[in-house]
Structures are given as C-alpha cells and as structure tokens.
Design brief:
Distance between the termini: 30 Å
Largest sheet: 8 strands, mixed
CATH class of the largest domain: Alpha Beta
Shape: globular
Number of helices: 5
Structural class: alpha+beta
Number of domains: 2
CATH superfamily of the largest domain: 2,3-Dihydroxybiphenyl 1,2-Dioxygenase, domain 1
Number of strands: 15
Strand content: 35-45%
CATH topology of the largest domain: 2,3-Dihydroxybiphenyl 1,2-Dioxygenase, domain 1
Length: 245
Amino acid sequence: MIDLDHVAIALRDVTPTLNTLVAELGAPVMFGGANLGFRAMQVDAGGLAIELLEPWNVEANDFLARFLERNGDGPHHLTFKTDDIRRELDRAASDGYTCVGVSIDNPWWKEAFIHPKEAGGTVVQIAQAGMTPEQLDREVREYGPGRWWPEPSGAAQDRAVLQRVVVATDEIGRALGLYEDLLEGETVAHGEGWIELAWPGGGRIVLELAAGRPEGINRLEWTHAGPRLERTVGGTRFVLYPDDS
C-alpha cells in the first residue's frame, strides 16, 4: 500500500508560517527533528500533514539552502509513504522513472525521490518509516536537538482543514501515469481540465491543466469557518473556502 502523507514547504525561517498555521488556522503541532542540511517539523492540517523545512547544519548538506536561494520560500515536495519501498523502486523503474537520492539502509527511515523533471515540476518523495510518528517523537526528544521550533502564539479555536493540494500540469495523462498508476491515487472527481485523486489516509491531490502556468504545486485548498479568501503563506498560495457542512 502507498499513501499520501504530507506536503512540505521550504522556508528560510519557519516562525511566521508556523504562527499562521497554528494561531490562525488551528493546525496542531505533531513532531519534528533535524537532519543533514535541514530541520523539520509537522503540523496536522486535517486529512494531510504539512511539513515545514528550514536550513540547518548546511555545511553538511546545502540542498535546502540552494533551493531557497533559487526559488525563495514555497512548496518543496510531496511525500508518499509505503510499507515496501523496494517494491515501489522496482515499479518506478519498470514505469521508466529514475529515482534519485535512494537511501534504504537505515531501518528507521528509507527514502527515494522522483526528480521534478520526471514528476511534472514537483519533487516526489517515496518513503518507508520503521517507526510510528509517536515513536519518532520519543526518539527525537531523547536523542535529537529537542523542540527547536518557536512556540506558536496560541491556537485558533476554529480549525481549518486542508482539503487538497492542487498540482498544475501541462499534460493530465502524463500526470495520471505518476499519481494514479505509480502512486495509486484513486480518481474521485473530475471535470474539464482537472482530475481529483484520493488516498486511504484522507490526502487528496487535484491535477489541473496548467494552461501556460508553471508546473508543480500551485496551491493548497482549505475549508474554514469564514468567507472565501486567498493569501500567500510561506511563499505558498492558500485558498480558503467556507465550510458549508
């Protein structure tokens, strides 16, 4: 099984974006940690998690710092988790995808990436975790750098829910080859120039014909207790719709 786990946003400083997610949108903090070249933390946005990445220990690996220098703050990658990454690597190779950054020796975390040139402008991470988020949080607390992110300034009472990630593509059929055939998304809705896919954990992606726009993650669509509004948060376009349920 493969499931859409989170969308990641690269930031020079996570503080403003974290405050918006928690204090204004009511997304609770889940866990975080540090690695070579970056430190990360996640918030629960409803059916999907949002991971915030910030450069750290860049002398060991400067990939995130270089990304921010080229692109500025904004969407970085989509992560899909599987229970058998070797199977997914074989499937990706047989479908003609070249996986890079393959690291499968660590029993606690195995990963590989499909380059944005092959994934329609979006970095796609395929990962296999050897521990639950709760176990990971305990490990980070005991052995990691601790809670490195700033304490958000309170939490909103009304919680917004991230409904879907909208990915712009030049060719719907090509994008379906990745997100439906390889990554096993299920088509749940479609219309003129768009298709919506869903995964078992509740995450959803809309593939939207780019019509001259850059390919890749275009926006995050939410529902909340308020009017329709649009804003840019951490270099990422957020569109919030009234929750009519």
